[in-house]
Design brief:
single chain; OB fold (Dihydrolipoamide Acetyltransferase, E2P); Dihydrolipoamide Transferase; Rossmann fold; seven-stranded parallel sheet; six-stranded parallel sheet; 5 helices; 13% helix; binds GDP-N-acetylperosamine
């Protein structure tokens, strides 16, 4: 079974409109056949079937507004194959035509709020409803039984204040890297979307979920660091990076003082280069690349956006790695090899020839 999801059409938009649906439930489609046409404010995309099979659990109709990552349908090899799709993140359409996130719609119903009175831009968010109710300081992550979060001590000078998005293992590594190598930065708090997560990480308070990012921007916080490694779901890192950017955050490059980065290296934004890593001469890194501990990127490599070179991975000279690909721990990539987009190379592999998009290389 393959689940077909709404793609990221352009970087700063989570939402898109279904302008045409070309298939119907149970229809047999061939690989490359157009399933539907999706439109953001800047582009229109024909979404093709990646595989031949039967359209199942078709969830969209013309005029729908859907979000990046929402399931559109499944494509199965037979009509009787079981299919389960998780709920969409698409906004709910309220009476009167306003659109709200699911959590905002639930609050509107719970408190009997008149949605037309809620101050908002675009979709009505949970934070907008809580602000309307005078509860915006309440932790947005969970029901009110969660202890009130630490207030966000922003301080007067926010020029070097940074918020970390994520509260797991990768966040801990990022915190140490900032403390060790960017003493000019002051970590003001962590936002994390997990329910029932901890209240702090390494002494830094968790101040809420992504719903508080806008509040943080409004209070002058400009810098953010992505503390989510999501090594088994690297495309998520791309989505969350774009979410931070779309809220106006600048995402600085973080380079551990015990990493080696040659002066001729060029890079975009939000790259993280950890202790023991080596990025050699004339390498180019895109945005949001992780060069994890003791990874080696040899001369003239070109590493595209959102790639994760995990600990101890070794790239020979002039290797190219496409966006969102992951090179597993201890894996090596031979001189001049081209690795496509959305590739996963599992730990301990030796790549001697080019790898196509979306390939998964297991041992
Ligand atoms: O391999 C190494 C050296 N590090 C791994 C890193 C690259 O990736 C590490 O061992 C973990 O495998 C992973 O670190 P990460 O992403 O911090 O995973 P974990 O420790 O499980 O913490 C998950 C964090 O990601 C928590 O803060 C979750 O709330 C958040 N998270 C997980 N899924 C998510 C989602 N946050 C959002 N917004 N959306 C999600 O779907």
């Amino acid at each position: 079974m393959n689940i077909i999801r709404a793609p990221q059409i352009n970087a700063n938009e989570e939402e898109m409109e279904v302008v045409e649906v070309r298939v119907s439930e149970g229809e047999h489609v061939r690989s490359g056949e157009i399933l539907c046409t999706l439109e953001s404010t800047k582009a229109t995309v024909d979404l093709e079937a990646p595989h031949t099979g039967y359209v199942r659990k078709l969830r969209i109709q013309e005029g729908d507004r859907i979000c990046v990552g929402d399931p559109i349908c499944a494509v199965t090899q037979s009509l009787d194959e079981e299919v389960e799709l998780e709920p969409s993140r698409s906004p709910s359409t309220l009476n009167g035509g306003s659109r709200a996130t699911r959590r905002a719609a639930a609050l509107i119903e719970e408190y009997g709020v008149d949605a037309s009175q809620v101050e908002h831009e675009g979709i009505i968010t949970e934070y907008a409803v809580l602000r309307h109710l005078g509860k915006a300081e309440v932790d947005l992550r969970a029901p009110s039984d969660r202890p009130a979060p630490s207030p966000i001590e922003v301080g007067d000078d926010t020029s070097h204040a940074v918020v970390i998005y994520g509260a797991g293992g990768h966040a801990r590594v990022v915190i140490d890297m900032i403390r060790e190598g960017r003493r000019d930065l002051r970590i003001v708090g962590i936002v994390d979307d997990a329910d029932n997560g901890p209240d702090e990480v390494m002494g830094i308070p968790i101040v809420g979920d992504a719903g508080r990012l806008s509040e943080l921007r409004e209070r002058g916080i400009e810098l953010a660091a992505l503390g989510i490694g999501a090594v088994t779901h690297n495309a998520l890192r791309a989505e969350l990076f774009d979410r931070l950017r779309s809220r106006g955050f600048r995402i600085p490059n973080l380079i551990h003082p015990r990493a080696t980065v040659e002066p001729s290296v060029t890079m975009g934004r939000g790259n993280q280069i950890f202790a023991g890593a080596t990025v050699s001469s004339n390498v180019h890194l895109g945005d949001n690349v992780i060069v994890n501990s003791n990874a080696v990127v040899s001369h003239d490599c070109r590493i595209e956006d959102h790639v994760h070179l995990t600990p101890g991975s070794l790239l020979a000279g002039a290797v190219e790695v496409g966006p969102r690909s992951v090179i597993g721990m201890g894996s090596t990539v031979y001189l001049g090899v081209e690795v496509g987009a959305d590739v996963v190379v599992a730990n301990g592999n030796h790549i001697l020839s080019d790898v196509g998009d979306e390939e998964v290389i297991r041992r």
